[in-house]
Write a structure and sequence with these properties.
Layout (H helix, E strand, L loop, with lengths): L2 E6 L2 H11 L2 E2 L7 E4 L5 E6 L4 H15 L3 E10 L9 E4 L1 E5 L8 E6 L5 H9 L5 E2 L2 E4 L8 H11 L1 E5 L2 H10 L4 E9 L20 H10 L3 H27 L2 H4 L7 E2 L1
Helix pairs in contact: 1-7, 2-5, 3-7
């Protein structure tokens, strides 16, 4: 494999990945970074911002600019089912765009990468630490899902194990350009431990408003700072493991063989 495009939601998630890669800034929209793995694979890391439409636009632009051989949707996701814990990984080539709550979580489109070995290869590269799970991930467009009942309903309706806000847009851009893709995201909330509601995230940076963070800490003076620090630490650890496994996953003997077009359902 010659080049690998890594898409991640926001600056706070990208920064530790860039540090682990020892990547440097390169010209382009969304302030991309470039690094090289130990096997000489070129890595381009770009923030997508929040939501599938924004992620689609950024991914399509980055594909045109950098002409990668492979696309990876990286970052965080939320668990929909019991058995997935904080810091577990979800690796998949099966993503589905779904509607909002008032649309009864209806299906818009399902994308499946035709290489069903990609997700298991990622898991094998992780070894046993951290734990990883393979299954459908759904992408929502409006806002994170905080309600445990809503998560259970989505999981049942769509036979899904996790949810995010970008992977469908990333996969859609990859499919349209005939590129293989895969998702590798870390679980940062579960039905029993939802994400803190910090307010609407900035669509470009992925950051919540400072006022939302301050309000959360003031209302949760003991648990709040600990929860936020735990999320920060989790993202740092995720970056370490992501960069650790990429050389094995991008080994040309494993992933550079000709690929069929991705399947749409």
């Amino acid at each position: 494999m010659k080049s690998f495009l890594l898409l991640i939601e926001g600056d706070d998630e990208l920064r530790p990945v860039v540090k682990e890669l020892q990547a440097t800034p390169v010209p382009g929209p969304q302030n991309p970074f470039e690094g090289t793995l130990s096997n000489k694979t070129r890595i381009i890391a770009v923030t997508t911002g929040v939501g599938p439409e924004q992620a689609y636009r950024v991914t399509a632009d980055a594909i045109r600019q950098f002409n990668p051989d492979y696309v990876l949707s990286a970052g965080t996701c939320g668990a929909l089912v019991q058995g997935l814990e904080m810091s577990d990984w979800v690796v998949t080539g099966d993503v589905r765009a779904i509607g909002q709550a008032h649309q009864q979580w209806s299906t818009f489109e399902t994308l499946r990468d035709s290489d069903d070995t990609a997700a298991p290869r990622l898991g094998q590269a992780l070894k046993q630490t951290p734990r990883w799970h393979q299954g459908r991930l759904v992408t929502v467009a409006d806002e994170p899902i905080h309600c445990a009942m809503a998560k259970a309903e989505i999981a049942t309706l769509h036979d899904a194990i996790a949810v995010d806000m970008e992977s469908y847009g990333i996969a859609r851009a990859a499919v349209e350009n005939g590129l293989p893709w895969v998702v590798a995201r870390v679980v940062v909330d579960t039905p029993a431990l939802p994400l803190p509601d910090l307010g609407a995230m900035n669509v470009h940076t992925g950051r919540p408003p400072l006022s939302g963070i301050a309000k959360y800490v003031l209302m949760n003076p003991l648990a709040g700072p600990q929860r936020l620090h735990g999320l920060w630490s989790l993202v740092q650890t995720y970056a370490f493991h992501l960069v650790r496994i990429l050389p094995e996953f991008t080994d040309g003997s494993r992933v550079s063989a000709p690929r069929e077009e991705c399947q749409l359902v």
